[in-house]
Amino acid sequence: MKKYQNILNFLLATAITIILYSLEHLVIKNVQLYHLAIIFALSYPWRFGNTICSLFGGFNSDGSVYSLTPIIQVAEKNAVGLVGLMLFQKAKKDAIFIVGLSLSQQAQKNAWCVVGLIFDQRAGDGACCAIGLVFIQNAKNTALCIVGLSFVQKAGKDVYCGLGLSLWQEAKEDTACFIGLSFVQKAGKDADCGLGLIFFQKAVKMAYLEVGLSLSQKASENAYVGFGIAFLQKAKNTGYGNKANVLKTMGEPK
Fold it and tell me: For the chain, what is the mean pLDDT?
């Protein structure tokens, strides 16, 4: 990308200038031609050392990209957007989007969305959506949705949904839905639901429901419900009990 980054930034600014100038022309009848130059200057991703700062995004093969209302961001280091509609965000370190809609967010390290809607979030380390809706969340380490709706969460380590609805959780180690509705939980180690309803819970080690209703619990070792109802439990050890006591009988720390 280094060879073509200036051309890509020019094309991005040109496209945005044409769109904004056309919209202005629809609203204002007599638009001055010099507005084109002003809009282009505001739209262009300006470089300050190895960092690019812009209104609408940009391409940087040397450092980071910081944008106020980003549309496209591709960065060698960090890509940070404040608010708006993000079509594509890619960074070799961290990709961060504060508020808005993100169609695709990719980072070799961490991918963060504070408040918004994410269609596809992928990270080499951790993927996190603090408040909002996540369609696909894929991380090599931890995938986290704190408050909101998560359709698919996959992680090489742990998957967590804090408060909300999780349709599919799959992790090589632990999965957890603290408060809400979890349709499918598949874990290489433990699958845990704090308070809510679980349709299908499958774990290699322990499947546990703190409080609520479980339609199906399957585990190689232990399947337990703290307080509630389990329609189907399939494991070496099944039953009801406080999690701390269950872990104690298993010989594990609380």
Answer: 91
